Amino acid sequence: MEAIQAKDYQVVFGENGYSNLNAILKEKNYSILFVLVDSNTHEHCLAPFLQNIVTQTTIEIIEIDPGEEFKNLETCEGVWNVLSELNADRNSALINLGGGVVTDLGGFVACCFKRGIDFINIPTTLLAMVDASVGGKTGVDLGPLKNQIGIISNPELVLVDTHFLGTLSVEELRSGYAEMLKHGLISSEAYWNTVKQAKYTDFESLAELIRQSIAIKNEVVLEDPFEKNRRKSLNYGHTLGHAIESYFMESDQKERLLHGEAIAIGMILANYLSSELCSLPKSECDVISEAILAFYPSVEFTEKDIESIITLLKYDKKNSHGKVLFVLLNRIGEVVLNQEASNELIYNAFEYYKKLKKN
Predict the structure, then answer these.
(1) Which residues pair with 98 in a beta bridge?
(2) Which residues have CB under 8 Å from 301's CB, separation 6+?
(3) Which residues, 6 or more positions from 88, have their beta carbon under 8 angstroms from its beta carbon?
(4) Kind and range of the H or E element at 213?
């Protein structure tokens, strides 16, 4: 599969990708290679990954706990301490082998350690392949607030090996698929129609869709690397989606939602807001929302839940001058940025979601 040229690095695929990786390791001649894993990727992904690596450089493994709740500065401090104890220097490199938590946190760790060492992303989840590992965003959460601390910095390479998808549960695959559905909505009706009809458990056909999804994101990032304008479109469904994810992560009474499950709800809510505030036809809003909902389980929201979620919106990174700003649609492939919505409209959006899931 042909590589994708991003800014200052490539996204490479499969067996050819390992050749690219080994060429970089030889060229750079790193002093020590550190591979960051969580306990899941340590067990399921590390051995096959190392079998494809050709290098004389010492390799050290650093393991962190799995899960969004460990994507924080405390975990970073633990990794920085291990790097120091194992004599990492500025000519070391960090290979992040894992999902979005590992690639986001690992990239941030590398950017800060000794004011910056090289890092390479090897995404092992569908979500990380199409979203987290591409585009240079690194960072961690601040309590339950998503991605509040971080920096934009590009890796030396991103290697996508779809064999790792076989280690995932159906729920994890479905979570990553939400970002692919989003890429369709913000880019083209053709891709949306393809991805909404595909099966995320069919890895053979999924491989090309993954490449297309990465290409869509890469095109946006190349035009607007620091999210001043068009890159905000990648946050479709994320304003409310992130608030929902944070609320469910923080609440003792709620079962955790995976990222994509929350973003799927966020996109349906954004569809409704688009039909009210922009020119997305109501009929098209319904068709799009029903297509998204077909992939994901229904979630109940009480009025108290919605009130708490709206409160969390003030922490969204797209906000400006105290205003909560939404990414909305005029139609598939035509995004409208920096839209405000009243709390009443947001409550109505949740009511729309509630009625939709009963149909």
Answers:
(1) 123
(2) 309, 350, 353, 354
(3) 32, 34, 113, 114, 117
(4) helix 203-223
Q: What pairing do the DSSP bridges indicate for beta strands 93-98 and 32-38?
A: parallel
Residue type, 257: L
| Bridge partners for 59 per DSSP | 33
Contact 126, 177 (CB under 8 A): yes
Architecture of domain 174-195+229-356: Up-down Bundle (1.20)
Strand partners, 57: none
Task: Let me know: does 115 contact 89? Beta carbons within 8 Å.
Answer: no
Residue spans of the domains in the chain: they are 4-167, 174-195+229-356
* Residues 20, 157: Cα–Cα separation, whole Å: 9
Q: What is the pLDDT along the chain (359 residues), one digit of tens a residue?
A: 999 999 999 999 999 999 999 999 999 999 999 999 999 999 999 999 999 999 999 999 999 999 999 999 999 999 999 999 999 999 999 999 999 999 999 999 999 999 999 999 999 999 999 998 789 999 999 998 889 999 999 999 999 999 999 999 999 999 999 999 999 999 999 999 999 999 888 888 899 999 999 999 999 999 999 999 999 999 999 999 999 999 999 988 899 999 999 999 999 999 999 999 999 999 999 999 999 999 999 999 999 999 999 999 988 777 776 789 999 999 999 999 999 999 999 999 999 999 997 65
The fold adopted by the segment(s) 4-167 is Rossmann fold (3.40.50)
Q: Which residues of 309-346 are buried (b: 16+ CB within 10 A; e: fewer)?
A: bbebbebbbbeeeeebbbbbbeebeebbbebebeeeeb
Could you give the count of Cα atoms lying within 13 Å of 148 in the half-sphere of its Cβ? 15
The CA-atom distances, in angstroms, between 51 and each of 15, 22, 55, 167 are 12, 12, 11, 17
